[in-house]
């Protein structure tokens, strides 16, 4: 019989001559101890996360509202005779861009809100499953911002390379 434990491989052999029922070997349970200090830290973190998520939702709404007012602002700038580069860009493109930015900002705010709600429930009611959900939402939040940061850095690198190549091509 083979028994795999987390830290080591234990091999038990059973001989047919002395086959008898033996008591099962108890597995080592991994226990994570959460002290009152840690509970306090999680609860405080959850309160700040909820605050930041609500602010994020407010900014998402403001960005979406701005998205629908951009065409009116551009048309009034054009009516006043301004020849700004912004007036050359189609208002629909700016509206879609603002809507995408609002949608992009909504997801991390939602994950942060779900983390805060589950973490507060876990701490207040000593609910292990809520703590697992909270940590899952926090993982999703950080994963999103990590991938987003990599994408933005990639755009910067491509932009710098394009500028260097264009600069070399001009001279």
Can you characterise this structure?
The chain has four helices and two strands, in the order E-E-H-H-H-H. The chain is mainly alpha-helical and 171 residues long. A two-stranded antiparallel ribbon has the order 1-2. Helix 1 runs antiparallel to helix 3.
Descriptive key words:
171 residues; mainly alpha; two-stranded antiparallel ribbon; 4 helices; elongated; disordered N terminus
Order of helices and strands: EEHHHH
**Structural class label:** mainly alpha
From the alpha carbons, calculate the radius of gyration and give it in angstroms.
28 Å
Large-scale geometry: elongated
Write the layout of secondary structure elements.
Elements: E1 2-4, E2 9-11, H1 36-79, H2 85-88, H3 91-125, H4 128-170
Q: Quick gist of this model?
A:
This protein is mainly alpha-helical and 171 residues long. Helices cover 74% and strands 4% of the residues. The longest helix is centred in the middle third of the chain and has 44 residues, at 36-79.
């Amino acid at each position: 019989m083979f028994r795999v434990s987390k830290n080591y491989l234990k091999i038990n052999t059973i001989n047919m001559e002395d086959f008898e029922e033996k008591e099962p070997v108890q597995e080592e349970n991994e226990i994570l101890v959460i002290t009152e200090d840690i509970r306090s830290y999680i609860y405080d973190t959850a309160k700040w996360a909820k605050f930041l998520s609500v602010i994020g939702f407010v900014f998402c709404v403001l960005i979406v509202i701005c998205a629908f007012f951009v065409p009116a602002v551009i048309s009034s700038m054009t009516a006043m005779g301004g020849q700004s580069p912004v007036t050359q860009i189609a208002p629909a493109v700016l509206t879609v861009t603002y809507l995408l930015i609002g949608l992009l900002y909504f997801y991390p705010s939602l994950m942060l809100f779900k983390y805060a709600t589950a973490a507060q429930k876990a701490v207040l009611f000593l609910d292990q499953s809520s703590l697992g959900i909270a940590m899952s939402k926090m993982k999703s939040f950080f994963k999103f911002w990590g991938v987003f940061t990599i994408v933005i850095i990639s755009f910067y690198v491509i932009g710098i390379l394009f500028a260097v190549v264009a600069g070399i091509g001009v001279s």
